[in-house]
Amino acid sequence: MTALTTGLAEARRLAQRTVVDPRYPISTYTLDVLWVLYDRVLSVSPERVDDPERDRFLLSKGHLPGAYYALLAARGFIPSEWLDSVAATDSPLGAHPDRTRVPGVEISSGSLGHGLPIGVGMALGLRAQGLTVPRVYVLIGDGELDEGSNHEAMEYAGATGLDSLTVVVSDNGSATHGRPGGIASRFTAAGWSAVTAPASDHVRLEAAFTDRPGDRPHVVVATS
Amino acid sequence: MSNSTMEASVSMREVFIAETARLLWDDPRSALVLAAISAGEGRFADAARDHPDRVVNVGIREQLMVGVAGGLALTGLRPIVHTYAPFLVERAFEQVKLDLGHQGVGAVLVSVGASYDWSEGGFTHFSPRDVALFDTIEGWRVHVPGHAAEVAGPLTRAVAADDSVYIRLSDRTNREARPVSDRLTVLRRGSAGLVIAVGPTLDPVLAATEGLDVTVAYATTVRPFDTETLRELGHDAVAIVEPYLAGTSSHVIGDALADRPHRLLSLGVGVDDLHRFGTPEDHDRWHGLTPDAIRARLDVFLGTD
């Protein structure tokens, strides 16, 4: 087994190493989603971080990135030693990811509601350059969905049929004024296709990403 | 009708639209992001038909407009982003800060409206604080043309580059175009002090300084500011007249002259919400930017009254 195929258990173990500051406790509820994406869905690898044809994964919800860092280490994008000094003075790994310092990180995030508009721009930019194979995946939190900038992007992407865009909403029930079933319905009302699947069921989650109509933007609501 | 007034009948915005349409043909890297403003027939509608993949109108969604520009730049395109100044710079300021600079990419932001071009529209459409806001983030170049013929050069250079550039267009215009550069252009020399006119304030400044023994310099590139020429000119009394918030460049000039005894007079638009409409000329009067008002302040400052 090579470093690139290190298993999910290894990623979970690595995530524990990111707890270097009690202010930033480990939160791995996004790890299932990240694992399924990087293991079964995304076309990207450490050797292809600058390849125009790679898929783009944007962690819009930059908070609590321990699972993301662990995944990047497990897949060989960054050395696992980096996990021991998250948020330390000279660490490339902050309490929010910085694309200018971490290989494989597509956007610097932290302030909520920025990843989806940037992802829309990336999808448009790839299409304008004839790059029709790569897809853009944006992970947002259900609480993050409160930000109005997301709704500007949802409406635009749905209305224009931006079919190379996939959003995954990691739903851990943290939204203020959230309502059951509200997430998928907001996207479908804007013209998206939507599938809801439990994050822990990796077979269903993978299918939720791959089984899509393909003529419009797609959202996966991953519940936990 | 004189030649100069005929030239002035072509607006900065019209030149911007025509030049951008040309750049979209010439440079496959260029892209244009709009939020409804200037998207219609006679504006960018033809460019949108000619380049449907590189002209993006997101509707009245300014946060998305700037975020999309960041995404386009991250794929290697060179976005031009355009709307009214308060919506481009103030409404979407966090996007300007995070979706461009913090990502390590740039864009060309081009505004219309300036400080009070659409005076009837009132305070919601005024943007006197735009240039000051760019001083709070790193690395922005800022151009303030004073004539329609001063727009194409900075725009073309900005689109060919990779950094972040703000071009502030206005309906206010000087009667004559000047050669534009990144340097201060010295228009005449005197001994009592230096008066720097930014963009469209040049004509009022020239009228205000008539008969005064002062050096008059013209600036259209205000960031980075040409502190080298400022220092070479050697005046210890410096006045700057800016078409946006008074004092916007005080810190730049103060820093540049920190090692010398000097005095500084900063004229520009006041910070008050006047809750008044009228004409742009009315606002010039209310903010003390008419030739007479500028002259009165200069006379006190220079001791020439």
Q: Biggest sheet of chain B, open or closed, and with what strands and sense?
A: 7 strands, mixed
Question: What's the CATH H-level superfamily name of the domain at 115-223 in chain A?
Answer: Thiamin diphosphate (ThDP)-binding fold, Pyr/PP domains
Count of the separate structural domains of chain B: 2
Supply the CATH class of the domain at 115-223 in chain A: Alpha Beta
Order of strands across the main sheet of chain B: 2-1-3-4-6-5-10
Amount of beta strand of chain A: 5-15%
Rg of chain B: 19 Å
| Strand segment tally of chain B | 12
Largest interface: A-B, 30 and 30 residues
Distance between the termini of chain A: 29 Å
First-to-last CA distance of chain B: 36 Å
Estimate the helix proportion of chain A, in percent: 25-40%
- Range of helix content of chain B: 25-40%
Describe the protein.
Helix content of chain A is 33%, strand content 13%. Chain A is an alpha/beta fold and 224 residues long. Chain A has a domain at 115-223: 3-Layer(aba) Sandwich (Rossmann fold), CATH 3.40.50.970. A 5-stranded parallel sheet of chain A has the order 1-2-3-5-4, with helices on both faces. In chain A, helix 1 (8-17) crosses helix 3 (66-74), helix 2 packs across helix 7 (202-210) and helix 4 packs parallel to helix 5 (148-159). Chain B is α/β, with parallel strands linked by helices and 305 residues long. In chain B, 36% of the residues lie in helices and 20% in strands. In chain B, helix 4 runs parallel beside helix 6. The radius of gyration of chain B is 19 Å and the shape is globular. The A-B interface holds A 52, 99-100, 106-108, 111, 113-114, 116-129, 131, 148-149, 152-153, 155-156 and B 31, 33, 53-54, 56, 58-59, 61, 63-64, 66-77, 79, 94-95, 98-99, 102-104.
